[in-house]
């Protein structure tokens, strides 16, 4: 029994979901980002150095002149993931993005896995862009920095150590450190700096496009055909282009620092996507009308193309734009990295000191410093060749998880968005007022297994001048939810049971009505597994499929059919659309199509990328089970709620709870009519610190209440 109880407790811990505060002014972060700031953050992350490198790779090696179509297709697919982010962000108005959405829908362990990999990826991404900045700068000045470093630091001999770079890239480390300093100084400062660099980048792209049109030879577009590599080349290019649009999630990370998130987030993402798509398409068209696609230099396409037509000076203009673009990219990577560390630490899954914010700048300075140290070390010493695909794979995993979270949230009852607490304009105050927020959390299947509805537990934070009667009322709400033994609660469950049984025509439908949340989660997981299998067969067994190999055809038909069948509950369960500031259209079709597109691209990653993902995930799981699970703020909140409910049940009832064991002792104890807040908190603190039972007094008797999740056991 002890092993079973221990296993059950671990299971409850790893699947517990997080309470979401709906008062947006109860954040220690500064609300100072306007809609324009959010849009520029998204543009800075999505463009990066891609417009100066990725355009040449796609047009020169994959799709030819049709590379512009590859960018359009990829942008559309990425936008599907972006609108899933939007629906989640408008319901869950806090920083954390994919980590937060996973915590609220799929539980704590899965959230830590996503958050941990997100931290790792953003460390490497920040370092990677910093290295790109250094390499581009060094190329402009004739490899001066590299030569000096090798000559005077390494005594003329480059490193040949596996995983390490060929020489310490000091410039890259300085760039990464500079970006982190800007982020630490203040969100508004870093946002304005990013806006300047992004503006320089966009102006450079505009000038490149203008000069390209002036010197264009449009015969290059049709000399070898507009589709020289066929539709397959366009799709291969689209898969590569997708990485260029990664970064829009930075806008979701900014939700807790936006002045008006309900307006700013949707507009910011839409504007960022439009601007990024236009820049990528303009860049691709420019390079394909300046030179034959076979002569494009993937490493520096614009420099080579302009030199070929005698405009050597343009390489300096391109260098300015590229360096400005990458500087904005580094700043945004540092911003997302700091918020990723901060939000996980705020939830107790990483050391709490990482969640401390500076009172003046209202930024997570310690988390930013930790990210800076890691980014600088990695950018100076580590070689990135073996982890490029891993970075992209984790991005796709995040997109898949967010798509699943968007569907789950839509099939839950309407979550009241905290955005109503914010003034409707970008000029609203950035002050962080305390307005006694309410918190909402799905109560799991415990309260919904006999009903088709989704009741929620409401945990009210008490004001400084609280009314004891209000406190007792709030405690009664929690008691009916956590103990599950009140007569009224049982009557409600009985009525729900009868309604569900008589309204359902089959056993399966009756089970779905009883367990709606679990049904949606299981349906999506099974759908994803069968979809992976079907797409893998279509990808790696295409030759056999063309030859109508019976086993392959049967496998595709079975896995594809099962993937579709698993979606059936999504078409019979009710959706909850009220109170959602932004809704994904055509739910659940668009999220499911987004999942399919992401899976199609994910199966193309090689085994090494998946192995690296599993290794980092395993390291994260060790950290979670040894530290995070035992220091979880959500776990402590639930423990305290259970203790308060136990105390209330024992002290306010004239007789023991029906499912509690009460031992009478210490008859000399002083009588009391209840438990005041300060005394209760003192007992709760003592019990948690010393693992002791909590003693309460009622009518001359002292009761010792030891809480468990979902029930109250009281003993000596």
UniProtKB/TrEMBL annotation:
InterPro entries listed in its UniProt record: AA/rel_permease1, CAT_C
GO CC list: plasma membrane
Keywords: Membrane, Transmembrane, Transmembrane helix
Ranges for region Disordered: 422-453
Predominant place of localization: membrane
Listed transmembrane segments: 35-54, 66-88, 100-125, 170-189, 196-214, 234-255, 267-290, 316-342, 363-382, 388-409, 519-540, 552-572, 584-601, 607-627
Statement: the UniProt record of this protein carries the keyword Glycoprotein: no
Topology within the bilayer: Multi-pass membrane protein
Molecular function per GO: amino acid transmembrane transporter activity
Ranges annotated as biased composition (Acidic residues): 431-450
Residue span, Cationic amino acid transporter C-terminal domain: 582-632
Cross-referenced Pfam families: AA_permease_2, AA_permease_C
Location within or outside the cell: Membrane
Keyword Transit peptide carried by entry: no
Protein name per its UniProtKB record: Cationic amino acid transporter 2-like
Taxonomic source organism: Acanthaster planci (Crown-of-thorns starfish)
Lineage of the organism: Eukaryota, Metazoa, Echinodermata, Eleutherozoa, Asterozoa
Gene: LOC110987577
């Amino acid at each position: 029994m002890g092993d079973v109880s221990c296993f059950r407790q671990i299971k409850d811990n790893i699947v517990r979901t997080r309470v979401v505060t709906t008062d947006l002014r109860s954040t220690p972060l500064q609300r100072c980002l306007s809609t324009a700031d959010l849009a520029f953050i998204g543009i800075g992350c999505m463009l990066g150095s891609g417009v100066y490198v990725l355009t040449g790779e796609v047009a020169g090696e994959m799709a030819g002149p049709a590379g512009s179509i590859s960018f359009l297709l990829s942008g559309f697919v990425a936008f599907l993931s972006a609108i899933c982010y939007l629906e989640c962000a408008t319901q869950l108005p806090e920083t954390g993005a994919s980590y937060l959405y996973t915590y609220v829908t799929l539980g704590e362990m899965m959230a830590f896995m996503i958050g941990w990999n997100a931290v790792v990826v953003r460390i490497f991404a920040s370092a990677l862009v910093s290295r790109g900045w250094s390499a581009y700068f060094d190329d402009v000045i004739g490899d001066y920095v590299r030569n000096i470093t090798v000559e005077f630091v390494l005594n003329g001999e480059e490193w040949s150590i596996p995983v390490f770079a060929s020489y310490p890239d000091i410039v890259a480390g300085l760039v990464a450190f500079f970006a982190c300093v800007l982020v630490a100084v203040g969100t508004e400062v870093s946002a304005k700096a990013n806006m300047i660099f992004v503006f320089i980048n966009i102006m450079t792209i505009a000038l490149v496009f203008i000069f390209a049109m002036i010197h264009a030879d449009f015969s290059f577009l049709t000399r070898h055909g507009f589709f020289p590599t066929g539709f397959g080349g366009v799709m291969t290019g689209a898969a590569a282009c997708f990485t260029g649009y990664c970064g829009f999630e930075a806008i979701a990370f900014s939700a807790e620092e936006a002045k008006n998130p309900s307006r700013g987030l949707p507009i910011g993402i839409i504007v960022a996507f439009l601007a990024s798509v236009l820049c990528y398409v303009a860049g691709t068209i420019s390079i394909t009308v300046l030179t034959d696609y076979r002569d494009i230099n993937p490493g520096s396409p614009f420099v080579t193309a302009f030199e070929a037509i005698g405009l050597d000076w343009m390489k300096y203009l391109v260098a300015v734009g590229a360096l400005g673009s990458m500087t904005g990219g580094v700043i945004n990577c540092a911003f997302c990295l700091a918020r990723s560390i901060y939000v996980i630490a705020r939830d107790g899954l990483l050391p709490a000191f990482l969640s401390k914010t500076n009172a003046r700048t209202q930024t997570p300075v310690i988390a930013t410093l930790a990210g800076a140290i890691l980014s600088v070390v990695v950018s100076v010493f580590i070689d990135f060749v073996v982890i490029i695909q891993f970075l992209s794979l984790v991005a796709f995993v995040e997109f898949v998880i967010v798509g699943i979270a968007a569907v789950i949230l839509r099939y839950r009852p309407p979550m009241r968005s905290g955005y109503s607490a914010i003034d409707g304009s970008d000029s609203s105050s950035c002050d962080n007022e305390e307005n006694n927020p309410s918190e909402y959390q799905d109560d799991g299947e415990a309260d919904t297994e006999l009903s088709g509805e989704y009741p929620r537990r409401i945990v009210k934070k008490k004001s400084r001048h609280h009314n004891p009667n209000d406190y007792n009322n709030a405690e009664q709400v929690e008691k009916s939810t956590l103990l599950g033994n009140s007569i009224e609660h049982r009557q409600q469950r009985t009525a729900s049971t009868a309604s569900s049984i008589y309204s359902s025509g089959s056993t399966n439908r009756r089970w779905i009505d009883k367990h709606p949340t679990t049904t949606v989660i299981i349906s999506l997981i099974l759908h994803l597994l069968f979809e992976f299998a079907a797409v893998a067969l279509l990808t790696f067994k295409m030759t056999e499929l063309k030859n109508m190999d019976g086993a392959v055809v049967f496998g595709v038909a079975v896995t594809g059919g099962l993937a579709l069948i698993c979606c059936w509950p999504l078409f019979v369960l009710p959706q909850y659309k009220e109170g959602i500031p932004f809704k994904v259209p055509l739910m659940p079709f668009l999220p499911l199509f987004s999942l399919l597109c992401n899976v199609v691209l994910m199966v193309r990653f090689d085994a090494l990328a998946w192995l690296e993902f599993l290794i980092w995930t395993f390291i994260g799981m060790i950290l979670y089970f040894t530290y995070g699970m035992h220091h979880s703020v959500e776990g402590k909140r639930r423990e305290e709620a259970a203790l308060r409910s136990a105390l209330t049940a024992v002290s306010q009832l004239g007789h023991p709870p029906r499912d509690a064991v009460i031992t009478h002792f210490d008859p000399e104890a002083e009588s009391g009519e209840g438990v005041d807040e300060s005394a209760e908190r003192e007992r709760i603190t003592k019990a948690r610190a010393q693992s002791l039972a909590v003693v309460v007094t009622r009518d001359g008797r002292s009761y010792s209440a030891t809480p468990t999740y979902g029930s109250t056991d009281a003993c000596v």
